[in-house]
Amino acid sequence: MSNSVMIYVRVGTQEQAEEKLGKQIVGCKQFAEDNDKRVIAVFKDVISANQRSDRFENILDEMKNQGINELLVQNWSRVSRNTKIVYEIDQMFRDQGSFIIPIEQ
């Protein structure tokens, strides 16, 4: 399934969830379509950007189970605003042969 991807979107508060999660999903789906990728799953979180989410371990497990090695995010701040946490999560993915791909810089 090398042409398949999963998407991760995150906002910090419930108030942001309705509008901003949708915009992130649309952007990631458009990026996938533009790059001939098929979206298999979308993971959504409402959690502070400064918290390290164990969710990424679960997402990585699901990706491995599905034979997918690319996770699209809007930008690195959707993973975390803490640079150390971003590095740790990115390294965890790379160690497993998977990649987090931010669609914007």
TrEMBL record:
This is Recombinase family protein. Pfam families: Resolvase (PF00239). GO terms for molecular function: DNA binding; DNA strand exchange activity. InterPro entries: Resolv_N, Resolvase-like_N_sf. The lineage of its organism: Bacteria, Bacillati, Bacillota, Bacilli, Bacillales. SUPFAM superfamilies: Resolvase-like. Residues 5-105 form the Resolvase/invertase-type recombinase catalytic domain. Signal peptide: none annotated. It comes from the Bacteria. It comes from Paenibacillus chitinolyticus. Coiled coil: none annotated.
